[in-house]
């Protein structure tokens, strides 16, 4: 195993199409030591499916970010609500957070939300006219999950577009100061909303979240932290799921035509769409608390470990001919929502939003086509998620 000389996940070619990079790294070794950023820092990158699945459940890989960075020099200034959330903690703190979060996304709760989600899609598409051009990202993929998660949390309508913009900045891979500033804007704003809900009796969604957090043993700061995580994670990846899915279908017209003929296939197609172009390219931060061995590679204690679902989902050892979109494939083992105790609790909601959006698109506008060549779309410059900046369509 040879260590790359430069960070392979910051190359402009990676942001445009990460899969050749992932394939090259995985062929060398499914677990590799790679440089990260500047200053001679390194991490271990996991690109194999079996190895990623194993790592997701290994208790020696901690998500306690504060523990890793304690005593290490840093020029970062993230808001505590952003850097000390459920995704940056281990049990028992993680268990308390997750117990509250999971109640929001039960099968029954998501089923209750279906009519509301359908109305939101109907409202967003009401201005769409055949023969005109729309941007699928700006006109559907962004506002749909933002509206739904803000409704779920009780965020006022007047705040939603602003919070979505700050969330977008939070995933900027090129500007640490922009990320830090966005974290404070989100954290401060949600602190105000949570404090107001706590001080004012009411029966709104945010009041219910505050009560659930108190009953679950979360303190006021942890309540803000959970609200921030649900807001950001609750819409960012769903936006990318919708955009990536539509682009994949446009690039596979026979598959798209199949869904047009039979929209009832859409729920079953989501696993393959999630596998084919995962909205989560690299999972959130982990570090080794003890020496361990993954995929035949020794990982010393004290190193960051990056698990790449985007790479694992294209591992030919798990999925033959992995670069082909195949709706008949059994893709249920994909890792786009993670695996183990940190698996995304909002997965049922994300799937439901994507299903309703895709069904509306193929039934209302069966002849939709890209307004630009299929290779033209531009992608967000972030290694954590994979999503389009825009997707112009002709209806």
Task: Please outline the helices and strands.
Elements: H1 12-16, H2 19-28, E1 31-35, E2 42-46, H3 49-56, E3 61-62, H4 65-69, H5 80-83, H6 93-103, H7 107-125, E4 133-135, H8 136-141, H9 143-153, H10 157-170, H11 176-199, H12 205-215, H13 220-250, H14 253-261, H15 266-276, E5 286-288, E6 292-294, E7 297-299, E8 304-307, H16 309-312, H17 347-364, E9 369-370, E10 392-394
Parallel strand pairs: 2-8
Antiparallel strand pairs: 1-2, 3-5, 4-10, 5-8, 6-7, 9-10
> Strand tally, please?
10
Helix proportion range: 40-55%
CATH class: Mainly Alpha
User: What is the annotated CATH architecture?
Assistant: Orthogonal Bundle
> CATH homologous superfamily - what is it?
Cytochrome P450
Main sheet: strand order: 1-2-8-5-3
Which sequence of SSEs, written as H and E, runs from N to C? HHEEHEHHHHEHHHHHHHHEEEEHHEE
List unreliable stretches of 5+ residues: none
Could you name the CATH topology? Answer: Cytochrome p450
What Rg do the Cα atoms give? 21 Å
Question: Could you list some keywords that capture this structure?
Answer:
single chain, 395 residues, alpha+beta, Cytochrome p450, 5-stranded mixed β-sheet, 17 helices, Cyt_P450_CS, oxidoreductase, Cytochrome P450, monooxygenase, metal-binding
Give a verbal description of the structure:
With 395 residues, this protein is α+β, with helices and mostly antiparallel strands. The chain has a single domain, classed as Cytochrome p450, CATH 1.10.630.10. Helix content is 51%, strand content 8%. The protein is built from 17 helices and 10 strands. The chain has a 5-stranded mixed sheet with strand order 1-2-8-5-3, sandwiched between helices. The chain has a 3-stranded antiparallel sheet with strand order 4-10-9. Strand 1 and strand 2 form a beta hairpin. Helix 7 packs across helix 9, helix 10 packs antiparallel against helix 11 and helix 13 packs across helix 15. The termini are far apart. The mean pLDDT is 91.
């Amino acid at each position: 195993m040879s260590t790359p000389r430069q960070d392979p996940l910051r190359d402009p070619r990676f942001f445009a199409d990460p899969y050749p990079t992932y394939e090259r790294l995985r062929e060398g070794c499914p677990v590799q030591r790679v440089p990260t950023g500047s200053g001679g820092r390194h991490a271990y990158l996991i690109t194999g499916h079996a190895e990623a699945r194993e790592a997701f459940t290994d208790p020696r890989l901690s998500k306690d970010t504060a523990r890793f960075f304690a005593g290490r020099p840093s020029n970062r200034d993230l808001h505590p609500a952003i850097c000390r959330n459920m995704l940056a903690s281990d049990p028992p703190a993680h268990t308390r957070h997750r117990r509250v979060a999971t109640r929001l996304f039960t099968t029954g709760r998501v089923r209750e939300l279906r009519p509301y989600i359908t109305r939101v899609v109907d409202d967003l598409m009401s201005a769409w006219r055949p023969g005109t051009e729309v941007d699928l990202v700006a006109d559907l993929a962004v506002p749909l999950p933002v509206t739904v998660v803000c409704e779920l949390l009780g965020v006022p309508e007047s705040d939603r577009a602003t919070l979505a913009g700050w969330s977008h900045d939070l995933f900027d891979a090129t500007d640490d100061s922009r990320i830090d500033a966005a974290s404070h804007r989100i954290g401060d704003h949600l602190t105000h909303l949570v404090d107001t809900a706590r001080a004012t009796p009411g029966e709104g969604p945010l009041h219910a979240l505050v009560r659930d957090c108190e009953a679950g043993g979360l303190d006021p700061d942890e309540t803000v932290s959970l609200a921030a995580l649900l807001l950001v994670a609750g819409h960012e990846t769903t936006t990318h799921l919708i955009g990536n899915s539509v682009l994949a279908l446009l690039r596979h017209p026979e598959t798209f035509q199949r869904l047009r003929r039979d929209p009832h296939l859409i729920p079953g197609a989501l696993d393959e769409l999630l596998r084919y172009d995962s909205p989560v390219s690299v999972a959130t931060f982990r570090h080794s608390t003890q020496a361990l061995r993954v995929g035949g590679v020794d990982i010393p204690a004290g190193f960051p470990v990056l698990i790449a679902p985007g790479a694992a989902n294209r591992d030919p050892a798990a999925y033959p001919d992995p670069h082909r979109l195949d709706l008949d494939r059994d893709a249920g083992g994909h890792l786009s929502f993670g695996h183990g105790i940190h698996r995304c609790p909002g997965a049922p909601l994300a799937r439901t939003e994507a299903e309703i959006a895709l069904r509306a698109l193929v039934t209302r506008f069966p002849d939709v086509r890209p307004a630009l060549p299929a290779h033209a779309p531009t992608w967000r410059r972030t290694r954590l998620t994979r999503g389009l900046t825009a997707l112009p369509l002709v209806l």
